[in-house]
Amino acid sequence: MTKDLTDMSWDDFDEMRDPRPATNEFDAVVERAISRRGFLGGALAFGSGAAVFGASMLTPLGARAAASGAFPFEPIAIGTDFDIHVPAGYSWSTLVRWGDALVSEAEGAYSPETGVPVAMADKVFGENTDGMELFEVDGREIIAVNSEYVNPKINLPAASEGVAQNADEVAMLKHMQGVTVMEVAKSANGYAVVVDSPYNRRIHHDTPMVMDGPAAGSALVQTNADPAGLSPVGTMNNCGSGKTLWGTYLTCEENFNGYFGATGAYDETDGIKRYGIGGEGRYAYEKFDPRFDLSAEPNEPNRHGWVTEIDPADPQSTPVKHSALGRFKHENAEMVQAADGRVVVYMGDDERGEFIYKYVSNGLYTEGGATEGLLSDGILYVAKFNDDMTGEWLALTPETTGMSLEEILVFARLAGSKVGATTMDRPEWISAHPARAEAYCALTNNSKRGGDSMPVNAANPRETNDYGQIVRWQPAGGDHGATGFTWDLYVMAGNPAVYDNVYGGSDNITDGNMFNSPDGMAFDSTGLLWIQTDGDDSNEGDFAGQGNNQMLVGNPDTGEIARFLTAPNGAEVTGLCWSADRKTAFVGIQHPGGAWPDGNGKPRSSVIAVWRDDGATIG
Ligand code: FEO
Ligand code: CA
Ligand code: CA
């Protein structure tokens, strides 16, 4: 393994493997429409290097203006340092960092020189914090939070180039990822983890699970270790999250492909290629654990890339991988309810040119009622965004795809291409408005948008899209269960200081609030949309004036957007949830660079608490 593999971003890793989606019929239709008549009444600019649609699908907001008045805080300036900044009248403190003890046995386990010993790796808070949700259980506050991946040079300080050299080091990496369930409590000193709480738990790459739904037990998920195909082990690359209506946690398996490698020959099927699996794994797992060796266990990757449900109230419960929700690089899982009571889960597949999905249960949910089958028996749909700003959810069935149901679920990407789903600019988090039937999806960026294999389309209108946009849709009849919808772009990120065309962004982007690469998103209880970024924080060139990654707040009605928090340089802002009394927001700071927050040259991913100094609610 080379040094570069462990350092590479997941997007660069995808680019190396380059599993480009097949050009589909919809792309061809849009391309024909452009050349024939322009788009949406002729506002189209179509020139060298930048095929773009006009501004008519953007939220009409009038002249550019600094956000003001719409938010209960004064927007802050960009950050370029290694610290965290919040508005005047707000404060923050660190809740927990990678390596902090969940049980008293692990107190002091972390050291900047040696990391965390293998025996303690699953008794401390996990690495690279990401999606999280807070649950109230018997009057206690329990946070379930993802640990997405690892930073081997920080995690394995003794290993050459940060590459695992033996089974113990691989185990160390496996056990510092996955999910942490932890009780938190507030004292005079603010929030802290309740060490030794009976709810504290780590779930990682070696934790026993079960699979349910139509693909469970199928030949596609059977392995030597589990010939029945019902008992997968481990959840990995846990990115975004979700919360069920019945109070359980949904953890979403994203870039699972990077953990698999081959020590010998393997069959390079369409499924293997489309999911970017093969070659050398990022972390040398395959060299020390045959489960991750494609040449020994070709079906093991099919057991990952699912939405997995965890009951935070029962530390003995076995996590369940829900095959009915489809297998892809899951970002998050946003659960809402259809008008008739069916459960609806919106999901993005974060890779260049992949799709947005929704699952609709066959059964109905009533508060306090049975939940059996609600995430194992339903229909998976994929989104088609038409260029007239309507859209439809296309059912993925044996009839529409020519694939078996098991194949549809395990290879959902292939099924989506067959029905003509719209290629998107890397769908990240989806969040539904709390008071009306409307959902928002962050399309973070797409360096490969444009050209013949992934032409622009109306919802993804910029070639070489380095800034990203947020698309939103309103289901027909105000019913999340409907198969039709209308859509528009809530914001197109950009840099108005550098560009005066669509790369300058939509009208609600100004010199004072600009950002790139929207990623995490969550609506608060007041109907404001919190937006977290994971982008280029060089503050140079196309990104000059945008500073470090940040968290902004958007008003969905006026379109106004204001900057609330800036992260340390090098960090991504990941995950957001609120305390039960809504007076504290918990925010994830993933892979900070430089000296924050320990000052020892080994900065650790952390969850911070943010509150208002006057004690008022914060969302
Ligand atoms: Fe793990 Fe797409 O972010
Ligand atoms: Ca993300
Ligand atoms: Ca991202």
UniProtKB/TrEMBL annotation:
Q: Which InterPro entries match?
A: PhoX (IPR008557), TAT_signal (IPR006311)
* Listed PANTHER family: DUF839 DOMAIN-CONTAINING PROTEIN, SLR8030 PROTEIN
Protein name per Swiss-Prot or TrEMBL: Transcriptional initiation protein Tat
Organism annotation: Sinisalibacter aestuarii
